[in-house]
Amino acid sequence: MFDADVAVVGLGAWGSCALWTLARRGVRAVGIERFTPGHSMGSSGGTSRMFRTACLEHPGLVPLARRSLELWHELQSSAGQPLIDSSGGLLIGPRDGHIIAGTLAASRVHDLPVQMWDSGDLRNRMPVHAGLPDHHIGVWEQGAGLIRPERAIAAAVRIAEAAGARVFTDTKVTGVELVTDGAVVSTPVRDLRVRQVVVTAGGWLGSLVDELPVETVRMPMTWFEPMADRERFVLDRLPVFMRQLDDGVCVWGHGILPWNNAHAGLVKLGLEDSDGRFPVIDPEAFDRSVSPEDWDLLVGRLRTAVPGVREVPARVSVCMYTRTPDNQFLLGRPRRDPRLVIAGGCNNHGFKHATGVGEAVADLVMGRPPSYDLAFCDPDRFG
Ligand SMILES: Cc1cc2nc3c(=O)[nH]c(=O)nc-3n(C[C@H](O)[C@H](O)[C@H](O)COP(=O)(O)OP(=O)(O)OC[C@H]3O[C@@H](n4cnc5c(N)ncnc54)[C@H](O)[C@@H]3O)c2cc1C
């Protein structure tokens, strides 16, 4: 006797969307989350996440991003509240740097509707980038923008529950055991017997499934106050961007959000982990308190990247994410096991794809062929 056909362990970005899709397809599903959905203890806190279809990380992600965008709008419409905003997004850097080269490769393969701006154009259109050197260019995607992560996750779980999923929150899964005819998911309250288990535990993925090529990394997020001329830093004038500097360091961020949020009046900025600078941590036991080391490197680049904000952050918080050896996701059945699906290894660029990943997970669970080729995300690809 099974408690459900499938259990989804971890209702963060990817798990909440998997549960949403499974429930609306009528699958008997249960979702288990150790905190309250929309919390800030994992990879999905911090008020905003960039959405773009110009997937510089791998051209094969573009179809997933396109499908995700359709699904974000469906989720938004079911939720009856704004979840995604399309104020445009900008990728900036030297032409041969990884940001621009990756963006142009994805755009070429999929004929994306992006505009190329030379440094003069960019300085004229967005004076906040006035210090841009002549040899840098910008790629503008009008359909890019921001997703509200906490609200989106909470909405996906709520709608999944309304569609028939059972949800256990504030319940930690202590073990996942694969047995002859399915899986046993253990919690301190009870064990659940299911035909299949989906593990979407984000930074904790490696503690629930053995032998996965993932490590969990601690990553700070920082918010800065404009020194003067607040209007210069509003979202319309500083849309979400990623910018590679000449020393290779990549800064990302966006201007002041026009909606109520926990970081009102502040410009959000952070650094990409391009050279593995952020420390590998044990997700169960790491220091979430912040120190100047969390912002020193970024502050040293503010005058170049975003001049005009105070050089001491107004707010700092710590997030984590999972890193794989090739920076691509893990999505599929390890060792082709019919009882187990994993989705993780987000590598710091996974939120935008959550709805599409949720659908791909549901397809795997239901034995449907994938809608597009995600072989580069196969969890067994490292041998
Ligand atoms: C600072 C930062 C900035 C980022 N910016 C962007 C961006 O702009 N655009 C973008 O697309 N991506 C971005 N990302 C990446 C994106 O946020 C992640 O890819 C995404 O949040 C990962 O979602 P997830 O579901 O894998 O993890 P999470 O959302 O953390 O979900 C995992 C869930 O599993 C639960 N869980 C874990 N263990 C257990 C257990 N034992 N029992 C029950 N539940 C459990 C956790 O509580 C958590 O809710 C960023 C990441 C960081 C850290």
Automatic annotation (TrEMBL):
Names of required cofactors: FAD
Pfam families: DAO
Record keywords: FAD, Flavoprotein, Oxidoreductase
InterPro entries linked to this entry: FAD-dep_OxRdtase, FAD/NAD-bd_sf, MTOX
FAD dependent oxidoreductase domain boundaries: 5-364
Any GO molecular function: sarcosine oxidase activity
PANTHER family assigned to the protein according to its UniProt record, in alphabetical order: FAD DEPENDENT OXIDOREDUCTASE DOMAIN-CONTAINING PROTEIN (PTHR10961:SF7), PEROXISOMAL SARCOSINE OXIDASE (PTHR10961)
Listed name of the protein: Sarcosine oxidase
Record lineage: Bacteria, Bacillati, Actinomycetota, Actinomycetes, Pseudonocardiales
